[in-house]
Amino acid sequence: MKKIISVILSAAMLFSLVAVGFTANADDATTTFAVASDLHYVEPREELEGPIDDPIYWYANRRAAMEDESGFIIDEFLRQCAEDDNIEFVLLPGDLVNDGRVIVQQHLDVAAKLKKFEQESGKPVYVINGNHDNGAGDNDFKYDDFIENYYQFGYDEAIATMEGNCSYVAELNEEYRLIAVDSCDPTKSTEDGMTSDRVDWVLEQAAKAKEDGKYPILMMHHNLLDHLPVQRILSRNFIIRFHYTTAEKFANAGIKLVFTGHEHCSDAATYTSTKGNKIYDFATTSLTMFPTQYRVFNLTPDEIKYEARTVDKIDTDALTAAVSGYTQEHIDLMNAGFNAYAKGFLKKGIEYRLALGMTMEKIGIAEGEPFYKLVNTAVTGLTDILEAPLYGEEGSVEALAAEYGVELPKTDYKTGWDLATELVGAHYAGEEDFPLDSAPISVFFKVVALILRDDLAGIADDVLLGAVHELLGLENGITTEITQLCTKLMGRATAVEYLLLAIASPLLYEFTGDHDGVSDNEGTLPGYGVGATAGDVFDNISNIFSKIMEYLSLFITYILKVFTF
């Protein structure tokens, strides 16, 4: 009898251990996937052409997008996902192609690449449309065309759809459910179309996911949260309307992760609802622009781990076989580090785009019209300073600054354009780290101040006092000499400049640093299984108060200098 009891107890203990083991494995189950946004695929040209005066990046474009290389970047991204055994599926939050409203072939090419990836790897791809992918015009590639072309990439698995747009719901696995919502306005280019009906539909689908014991993940093209300071004002077409009230609703509906694109930056932002529920918006940069990054997520109920990965090489043999015009120097630089090559391409493209905008033709004022001479003088002075060498004895920004009693800190930047485009590139790459007292920001402020002084002095000399200038035969101009003299006597900054700094410093503070407590490119966050606590509500209030105090301290610092000037 004792033996029988012993056997029964042993079997029960063994069963318990096995059961515990199965439970532990279920609790520790990890869901791993990749997210890449804004592929902006363009068919490569047969031969390179370009308008830029540069020995390497002469074929860069005003979008700063690597159009000819885009297909090969996508191929490398898909290859990396296929070779990573941990990656289970791929999410693509819109702008799969660049000219998708009118060039159907771009859609066909991307769909073929995704189909080949799924067939060879066995890993599903889930897409949603972006503002470049479809429209509502008579000759546009419409939403139903998009669904038909990309049917096997999410739509074939849809358990729910929304009529009249590209939104759908699909099961990712046993734990997670994808809500892919069409956030685009079909008629207004980049603007969002996140209507109240679509918000309600998302909330309804999140509630159903909860009822079915699934964690809802949201994917859409437009941003949910700010990825620029006051983005709704500075870049309103890239973020949904009423974004904070919508984030409040989504967070309380159980949505913790949102994957977006559109802004072409690698940035993570968070919002905590009044109930203490956290929601994270991961905006992923354009795959085919610097920093040529995508994200990989590892999810358990307890943790969300994520990292940014870089496409740092492409098949240059295939590239040169498809496109003529690349030199051996191009290929050597790409093979040495494609990401570094992409950064140079981005900086030159941004410079070209900004310079294009600073012409009288683009501004829209023709010669002979009122204010032509005034604006032309200002624009010419601005571009001259940006194009001039930062350092040197003659003809440099440093030499001009010395005439106003301003000393530029030493940096490795070559020109004003070099510095300005570096700051933009850092925003795209994420993890910005330029303290306001750092040398780059100091140089940036001083170059801006110098442009204001020298430009305004030049305008006064050339436009307002031109006749007197010619009559007296002054070499440098009356206003320039007066401005330089006043600077030497009264200091390096004016009250107006301090006022401008008071207004601009909070914005620059947000643009050049990451202060929301969530790392952009690598980190660990609480998982879907971790509920809200009272401490989360308190932390949210504390963070809001701290940010307000930081803004006020920056503003007051410079305002006091105005009144004590």
Q: Round the Cα radius of gyration to an integer and report it.
A: 28 Å
Q: Give the class from helix and strand content and strand pairing.
A: alpha/beta
Count of separate DSSP helical elements: 19
The H-level CATH homologous superfamily of the largest domain, spelled out, is Metallo-dependent phosphatases
| Mean residue pLDDT | 83
Strand order of the largest sheet: 4-5-6-7-8-10-9
How many DSSP-defined strands? 13
Calculate the terminal CA-CA distance, rounded to whole Å. Answer: 99 Å
Folded structure, characterized:
The protein has two domains: 32-335, Metallo-dependent phosphatases (Purple Acid Phosphatase, chain A, domain 2, 4-Layer Sandwich), CATH 3.60.21.10; 348-563, no CATH class. Strands 4-5-6-7-8-10-9 form a seven-stranded mixed sheet. Strands 3-2-1-11-12-13 form a six-stranded mixed sheet, with no helix packed on it. It is an alpha/beta fold. The protein is globular, with a radius of gyration of 28 Å. Helix 2 (70-83) runs parallel beside helix 3 (104-121), helix 15 (439-464) runs antiparallel to helix 17 (478-490) and helix 18 (495-511) runs antiparallel to helix 19. The protein has helices at residues 2-27, 70-83, 104-121, 143-149, 196-211, 231-234, 243-252, 316-322, 328-336, 338-357, 360-363, 372-387, 397-403, 416-429, 439-464, 466-472, 478-490, 495-511, 534-563; strands at 31-35, 89-93, 125-128, 160-161, 168-171, 176-180, 215-219, 257-260, 267-272, 278-283, 293-299, 303-310, 522-526. Helix content is 47%, strand content 12%.
